[in-house]
Amino acid sequence: MNDNRPEPSNCADVHDRATLEEQRELERNLARHRAAAQQQSRLQPKGYCHYCDEPLREGQLFCDKYCSDDFEYEQSRRAINKKV
Ligand SMILES: [Zn+2]
Q: Is 1 within a domain?
């Protein structure tokens, strides 16, 4: 017998709702990242940062993670606000 650990059912409900929300948020983030990654994979190194136009070494797209993140963010915003 394994009935010495009763679990309140409403506890499970709250947990289910939380994970569902988390799942949706995760999927939204994933879709956004995928769209941004697609944009970035189409970029060609041009000797300058694609975000702030700083001169870069050959083969680089961005000068650092911040520019890459900001660029990704802008691209994802653009992908979302396509109504223009
Ligand atoms: Zn930059």
A: no
